[in-house]
Design a protein that fits this description.
Elements: E1 3-7, H1 11-20, E2 25-30, H2 33-42, E3 47-50, H3 56-63, E4 68-71, H4 75-87, E5 91-94, H5 106-112, E6 115-117, H6 126-135, E7 139-151, H7 166-174, E8 177-181, E9 184-188, E10 195-199, E11 203-209, H8 216-219, E12 225-232, H9 236-245, E13 254-256, E14 259-261, H10 263-275, E15 283-294, E16 300-310, H11 319-336, E17 344-346, H12 349-352, H13 355-367, E18 372-379
Parallel strand pairs: 1-2, 1-4, 2-3, 4-5, 5-6, 6-17, 7-12
Antiparallel strand pairs: 7-15, 8-9, 10-11, 11-12, 13-14, 15-16, 16-18
Helix pairs in contact: 1-11, 3-4, 11-13
């Protein structure tokens, strides 16, 4: 049994803490003490602690007694938080999905002799693990990930609910999207190149460019075509683009009745209520990962992984918390069991290259009723 601390008691952080508490001693931290008490009611074995991760000295003092850190803070806090964790000499599993390049922390992590796993969610996360696995099997030429978390009940106008902060969702809608086409890095505005696609159990969804490739642009430069797109119900993109083009996502303050306010802050406040996922509100996660490449026989092989996951009524856990959080807790347990011993910063594609780690994670998810359906075709 290991001593683990989870930073952040949001929907995903709480789900991870409860999952890890089955086999480990776990302390869940957050600034919101009421939120911590609420999670404690669900899992009596959890320890809870009010903690401000922005207080560097206090954070590093608190971390001293723990074997492993799980970081589930909002994206804008993620980079600095795991940097402080690494500087404290602690191993960490991170799902904060911060915009900075995590590989810039590799040198510090190696110097401190720690292992840092980043982007350990469903996407980025599980799609990278799948990519890393097949990168050792096929001479890959194509990689595409389509992914989205959606409410079961569609409510006009946005037909969307977020299991995490609206600020992080808006970040997806404003951060330039990078993809690779014919070996060249292409940068496009997010919310562009919309396509209508069909998915089993869901029907028609729209996909659009988002910046989800992240580290694989650097770690898998030999793959000539790579793209990640976000999925929403049809019509969502148009409404979001109206807000974006009208300036509602701008950070620069404007004066209203003599008071300086940030349009983004106001929008986030309004959308927090509109997009907030109720604790027992049913939602789904949909993902399709497609890989294409040449096998050892010289034939072109196409592999497709499909995921459809729903809110778990038994544990009252959201699908996004399950598919994101349990990927991270699988990696945490994999590490604690000694299956991965390298030091430095490791995005998920560098975990997936190990068949032992890949199989461990897939089996861990299956045990929690998260199933990836695999189809494989060969072309002449």
């Amino acid at each position: 049994m290991s001593n683990i601390i989870v930073l952040g008691a949001g929907m995903v952080g709480s789900a991870m803490a409860i999952d890890l508490a089955k086999n480990h001693k776990v302390t869940l931290t957050d600034l919101n003490i009421q939120r911590l008490k609420h999670v404690k009611e669900k899992c009596q074995t959890l320890n809870i602690l009010k903690l401000d991760v922005c207080n560097k000295n206090n954070l590093q003092y608190v971390l001293k007694t723990f074997d492993l850190v799980i970081c589930a803070v909002p994206g804008f806090l993620g980079f600095e938080t795991i940097k402080r964790v690494i500087e404290s000499g602690k191993n960490v599993v991170d799902i904060s999905f911060f915009p900075e390049n995590s590989l810039n922390l590799d040198k510090i992590a190696k110097a401190k002799g720690v292992t840092t796993f980043v982007d350990c969610g469903v996407a980025p996360g599980m799609d990278n693990i799948i990519l890393g696995h097949y990168n050792g099997i096929l001479k890959l030429t194509n990689f595409e990930c389509l992914v989205g978390g959606l409410p079961k009940v569609k409510k006009w106008p946005f037909c969307y609910k977020a299991p995490f902060s609206p600020v992080d969702v808006i970040e997806e809608y404003t951060r330039p999207a990078r993809y690779v086409e014919n070996g060249k890095l292409i940068i496009r505005e997010p919310l562009t190149d919309c396509e209508l696609l069909e998915f089993d159990k869901v029907g028609t969804l729209e996909s659009f460019n988002s910046d989800g490739l992240r580290t694989i642009i650097l770690t898998m430069p030999h793959i000539k075509n790579m793209k990640e797109k976000t999925l929403r119900y049809p019509g969502h993109v148009e409404y979001v683009r109206v807000l974006k083009e009208s300036g509602f996502f701008n950070k620069k303050k404007v004066k209203v009745n003599g008071i300086a306010v940030s349009p983004l802050d106001v929008t986030s406040k309004i959308l927090f209520d509109e997009w907030k996922l109720g604790e027992t509100e049913e939602e789904i996660t949909v993902m399709r990962v497609t890989l294409k490449g040449e096998n050892q026989s010289g034939k072109i092989e196409k592999v497709v992984y499909n995921l459809y996951d729903e809110y778990c009524t038994k544990t009252q856990t959201s699908s996004m918390a399950r598919t994101t959080g349990y990927t991270a807790t699988a990696i945490a347990n994999m590490f604690l069991e000694g299956l991965f011993t390298e030091k430095g910063v490791f995005p998920p594609e560098l975990i997936g290259k190990s068949e032992v780690c890949y199989n461990y994670i897939l089996n861990y998810l299956k045990e929690r009723n998260i199933h990836y359906i695999i189809t494989n075709t060969k072309e002449l």
